[in-house]
């Protein structure tokens, strides 16, 4: 069962009227155990290194999007750690769930005066919509009917605002055979909704632990690296990548343009066990 979407959108004011500045942090895979490792990499260490780099951005983000697989074991302890850490960062944070997460547990723990469960954000000239593509007990994604209806209602209500839609699972193939088998299963229905609303300027996701950026008919389709282990682009079978942990910084301009850049934590050593063939 997915968390119900809110009827009232959350609204914040951007730091500048001509641009909305966002950071996407995704696939942190935090464990209840502080020493928990994914493929030999301590996920709290890499998550904190990423967040410390975010804090050093020249322009402070207006909001942070945490786009799923925030926990590896869906434990209360992992979500409490994340809630406390995001609160300490002081950036308004909005989350959605991934296939490793438990939406109900997230709802209980990921909420304070800086971390929000709202799935519709109005900020400047933009509307940001966060969808739950997780399916209980499955690795692949699917958008339930209520999620698709919520998406359509939100887009219909604010036709004057540019829209960025975010979810966990990839709605487009990214070129890795094993990953593309566990993406969004009903991407056709998702895309049918988007095609009716030309104000959608971007679709943003996690799940694939790698960079992806493609322009299609005036819309950018974007994936970002994980804050922990990366997946090797173009691989047929499961394979960890050699790239460092990272995150994405996005500028959403008042004319509908999206500019973004990936930052990686390349000033410290991260050890990954490449002999492990799954996660």
From TrEMBL:
Residue ranges occupied by any Calcineurin-like phosphoesterase domain in the UniProt entry: 21-210
Superkingdom field: Bacteria
Pfam families with a match to the protein in the record: Metallophos
Species the sequence originates in: Aliikangiella coralliicola
Keywords carried by this UniProt record: Hydrolase, Iron, Metal-binding
Enzyme Commission identifier(s): 3.1.4.53
Primary enzyme class: hydrolase
Stated name of the protein: 3',5'-cyclic-AMP phosphodiesterase
Annotated GO MF terms: 3',5'-cyclic-AMP phosphodiesterase activity; metal ion binding
Classification via NCBIfam families: PRK11148.1
Family statement: Belongs to the cyclic nucleotide phosphodiesterase class-III family.
């Amino acid at each position: 069962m997915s968390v119900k979407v809110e009827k009232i959108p959350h609204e914040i004011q951007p730091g500048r009227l001509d641009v909305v500045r966002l950071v996407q942090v995704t696939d942190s895979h935090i464990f209840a155990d502080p020493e928990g490792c994914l493929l030999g990499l301590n996920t709290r260490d890499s998550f904190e290194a990423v967040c410390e780099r975010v804090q050093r951005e020249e322009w402070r983000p207006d909001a942070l999007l945490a786009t799923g697989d925030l926990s590896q074991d869906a434990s209360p302890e992992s979500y409490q750690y994340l809630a406390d850490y995001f609160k300490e960062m002081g950036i308004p944070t909005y989350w959605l769930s991934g296939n490793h997460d438990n939406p109900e547990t997230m709802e209980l723990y990921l909420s304070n005066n800086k971390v929000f469960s709202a799935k519709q954000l109005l900020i400047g000239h933009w509307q940001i919509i966060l969808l739950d593509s997780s399916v209980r007990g499955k690795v692949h994604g699917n958008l339930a009917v209520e999620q698709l209806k919520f998406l359509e209602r939100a887009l219909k209500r604010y036709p004057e605002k540019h829209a960025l839609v975010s979810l966990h699972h990839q709605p487009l193939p990214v070129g890795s055979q094993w990953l593309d088998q566990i993406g969004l299963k009903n991407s056709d229905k998702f895309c049918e909704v988007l095609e009716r609303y030309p104000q959608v300027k971007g679709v943003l996701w996690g799940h694939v632990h790698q960079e992806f950026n493609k322009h299609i008919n005036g819309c950018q389709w974007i994936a970002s690296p994980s804050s922990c282990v990366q997946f090797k682009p173009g691989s047929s079978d499961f394979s960890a990548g050699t790239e460092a942990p990272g995150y994405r910084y996005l500028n959403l301009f008042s004319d509908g343009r999206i500019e973004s850049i990936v930052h990686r934590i390349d000033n410290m050593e991260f050890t990954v066990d490449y002999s492990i063939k799954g996660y």
